[in-house]
Amino acid sequence: MKKTGFLIFIAFYGIGCSDRLTVPMDTPPSAPTGLYSITGDGKVTLYWNANREPDLKLYALYTSDEPNGTYELVGTTTHIQYTFNIPNGVTKYLAVVAIDYAGNESELSRQTVWDTPRPEGRRLFVYAFMNDSLKTNFDRCGIDFSDYDDQMVQSLDNSSNDVYIDNYENVIYLNAFTDDTDIAQFGKTEKLNDVDYIIPDSLEWAENGYVPLVEDYSYVIWTYDNHFAAIRVLEVYPNKVIFEWAYQTDPSNPQLKISAGNVSKEKERKLIIHIPKKQFTPIK
Prior knowledge:
Elements: E1 11-12, E2 17-18, E3 36-39, E4 43-47, E5 56-64, E6 72-77, E7 81-85, E8 92-100, E9 113-115, E10 120-127, E11 142-143, E12 153-154, E13 163-168, E14 171-176, E15 182-188, E16 210-212, E17 217-222, E18 228-236, E19 240-247, E20 258-260, H1 265-271
Antiparallel strand pairs: 1-2, 3-4, 3-20, 4-7, 5-6, 5-8, 8-9, 10-19, 11-12, 11-13, 13-14, 14-16, 15-17, 17-18, 18-19
């Protein structure tokens, strides 16, 4: 519900008086634009463009479980970013309302972002399997992303492994553990978060199930049980590799980092949801 401010002027003239009443409209702020989010570990940070109204007071942040569901107020801020604490694997739809000093509220932002936090880690050491007489590093070259909260690095005979690392002719490779797991080189990146919303058809998946690992390059893994993961290689040695990683716990969800914002048309169709008006509770 919108609140309209009234400015009343009363003028007195001489002995008598006459009243003059003027009621200029106090226009509500425009709905915030330019929304995009950065996916984190147990959190999502939402960003948007600053409103230009000179009487803007603050922004109110809303979330919903459904794109066209009821949006609930979760907080306010005077900044143009806000961090939501959301459990990993839980998808929330995010929106913003602008509020001025007269209490007028904008419509809910029409460009709505959904996001799903996921766990991540820094500087994971994984050793390279050597196919020698001792089977060196057999017990510490496998990776089971689903065991991220306990023991992600596993032995090579662990049936739940997603990938493993090996040294073949002095080159370090990332290998799919089964035929149902796919691997793709994403390319050179400055940080892990450069690997964003994954569109499987846009990647060139390795036909032979393995790719050489190169420092400062990122790789995407589509696991046998339909989860997405990403790694960014920090250091490569003859007997081990060090990388950072992210793993989406929500099955079939390709959300690894960013949604909305500057995305391709294919992403945009999946990410931008137009919300019917008045499906949120304004601040009283």
